[in-house]
Amino acid sequence: MRALVIGASGAVGTSIAELLENAGHAVTRAARRRHPHSVTVDLRRDVHGFAQLAPHHDVIINASGVENPAIALHLGGATLVDISATGSYLAALRCAADSARASVVLGAGLAPGLS
């Protein structure tokens, strides 16, 4: 499986990337700022970089904490797993995913509002 982990320099993203790599999956690590062994993706400012990477992956895990429902419009066939858990964002993400006919996993947060 090819996975794109957004927020891979943070605590949750680092753990997810390591678990996937240890299981033998190909992982692209993405971070908001330059970070060793990561590509730069900032979902708050520009979805273009994300849109370029997404179609080359089977699954995208957003552990960045950035809640941008527009990412559902740029998945390119990948499934999105979003770690965020605010209700308003998940509702907006669901609407965007429905309109784009995108595959998303909602409500994967650790605890509502704490992701």
Short description:
With 115 residues, the protein is an alpha/beta fold. The chain has helices spanning 11-22, 48-53, 87-100, and strands spanning 2-6, 26-31, 39-40, 59-62, 79-82, 103-105.
Structure description:
The protein has a 6-stranded parallel sheet, sandwiched between helices. With 115 residues, the protein is an alpha/beta fold. The radius of gyration is 13 Å and the shape is globular. The model has no long low-confidence stretch (mean pLDDT 88). Helices cover 28% and strands 21% of the residues.
Summary tags:
115 residues; 6-stranded parallel beta sheet; 28% helix; alpha/beta; 6 strands; 3 helices
Q: Could you say which overall geometry the principal axes of the C-alpha atoms support?
A: globular
Q: Major sheet: size, sense and barrel closure?
A: 6 strands, parallel
Residue stretches low in confidence (pLDDT < 50, at least 5 long) are: none
Q: Strand fraction band?
A: 15-25%
- Radius of gyration (Å): 13 Å
- Average pLDDT rating: 88
Distance between the termini: 25 Å
Strand adjacency order, main sheet: 3-2-1-4-5-6
- Provide the structure class: alpha/beta
